[in-house]
């Protein structure tokens, strides 16, 4: 029988808990100001119908299609629900866009990845859902993440920087009204790594 020295344990010490940075209150506040600024600009334009926190049924087949790189969904069984921060509809032109507001510090990197996955899956079914619920014939859908810290020169295909908002929606959008911030100010956090993907987020459901 092996003797254990007094005061010592034969059980190895557990590794230190993995640190998960908490969202910063100031970053979250600025992200909310950006969201409100974008909503106000779109509604002032009179061009779009805008719905916030739209609940969109997303079938598991849509998530599987995204994982496999497919651009369509054959069936719609076993749906869960994705809540999209902002859905913008241009009914006369048959277009709808689903957008999330996400900035470093306001959400964790894990939350950011989950938002990206949800948007890419929702993109495949958003057109028929909007057509059905808003009596609009939608044939073109885009999705994106509006990021108050993003550098437009380094963004991936999903990310929209503040300086790109006016061109993206074709509406006047003064950046000074958004309360957006840049990395290194207030409560900064590491920016998500931007990877280049094939261009184009349009789809014809």
Q: For the record, give the distance between the C-alpha atoms at the N and C termini, rounded to a whole number.
A: 70 Å
Low confidence ranges: 180-205
Which structural class matches the secondary elements? Answer: alpha/beta
Report the portion of residues in β strands: 15-25%
Main β-sheet, in a few words? 5 strands, mixed
Q: Percentage of helical residues?
A: 25-40%
Record field, number of beta strands: 5
User: What letter string, H or E per element, gives the SSE order?
Assistant: HEHEEHEEH
Average pLDDT, all residues: 78
Largest sheet strand order: 1-2-3-4-5
**Gross geometry:** globular
Rg: 21 Å
Helical run tally: 4
Entry keywords:
single chain; 29% helix; 4 helices; alpha/beta; 205 residues; five-stranded mixed β-sheet; disordered C terminus
Description:
- With 205 residues, the chain is of the alpha/beta class.
- The chain has four helices and five strands.
- It has helices at residues 25-45, 60-67, 109-133, 165-169, and strands at residues 49-59, 79-90, 95-101, 140-147, 159-161.
- Strands 1-2-3-4-5 form a five-stranded mixed β-sheet.
- Strand 2 (79-90) and strand 3 (95-101) form a beta hairpin.
- The longest helix has 25 residues, at 109-133.
- The termini are far apart.
- 32% of the residues are buried.
């Amino acid at each position: 029988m092996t003797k254990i020295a007094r005061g010592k344990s034969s059980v190895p010490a557990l590794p230190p808990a993995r640190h998960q940075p908490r969202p910063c209150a100031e970053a979250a506040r600025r992200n909310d100001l950006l969201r409100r600024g974008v909503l106000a600009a779109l509604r002032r334009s009179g061009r779009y119908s805008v719905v916030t926190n739209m609940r969109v049924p997303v079938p598991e087949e849509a998530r599987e299609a995204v994982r496999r790189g497919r651009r369509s969904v054959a069936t719609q069984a076993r749906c869960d629900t994705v809540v999209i921060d902002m859905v913008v509809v241009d009914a006369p032109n048959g277009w709808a866009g689903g957008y999330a507001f996400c900035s470093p510090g306001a959400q964790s990197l894990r939350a950011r990845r989950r938002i990206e996955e949800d948007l890419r899956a929702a993109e495949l079914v958003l057109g028929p859902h909007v057509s059905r619920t808003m009596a609009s014939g939608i044939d073109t859908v885009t999705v994106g993440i509006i990021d108050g810290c993003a550098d437009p020169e380094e963004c991936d295909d999903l990310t929209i920087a503040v300086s790109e908002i006016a061109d993206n929606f074709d509406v006047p959008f003064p950046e000074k009204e958004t309360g957006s911030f840049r990395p290194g100010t207030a409560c900064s956090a590491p920016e998500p790594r931007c990877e280049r993907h094939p261009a184009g987020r349009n789809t014809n459901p």
